[in-house]
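Exercise 7.
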Amino acid sequence: MEGIMARKKWLVLLVVFTVLLLGSAARLAAEFKIDIGVNVPYYIGVRAEDDDIGDTLDWVFLVPDVKFNWLHDLGPVRLGGGARLWTFIIQSMVYPILTAEADVGPFTFNTNVGGGLFLFFGLYNSIDTAGVVIPELTVAYRFSDRFSVGTGGLLVFAPEVADLSSFGYVGTVFARFTIRPD
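Solution. The predicted structure, written as tokens, is:
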């Protein structure tokens, strides 16, 4: 029963997002943006029930990502959606996201929530509709309109498998290049 409710909530969010995105008169004024980043995870953990296991990483590895966004400028905040790609070189994953971001001085605050549909390609190829939700929050210092560095964290919830008090989390630092096709 909970799985059906979770799917209904995602369907409602998808319908609302589609209406806002496609039904908006300001649609043509939306900005398409591609962020190409290199992430370095520095902390990883899992919280389950009343237990929390996490630690800083003793080794460094790079995790490339690409974020495609179509954002509407609503004054101080930009809202939109797109897709997020994470790659471990031999295995990659893409999923849809909803995004909100705001600039405060030289800083960009970004949050996105994604999941529900995952395309895996590489050694393992599949399209999965999993009840997994991946919220993320980042803050970046913009050196220019095209380059920023920052830090952030993401959570991985699987409400169909465990309740919302159980989740995985990762803290990262990143460098990001932004492309705005004209």
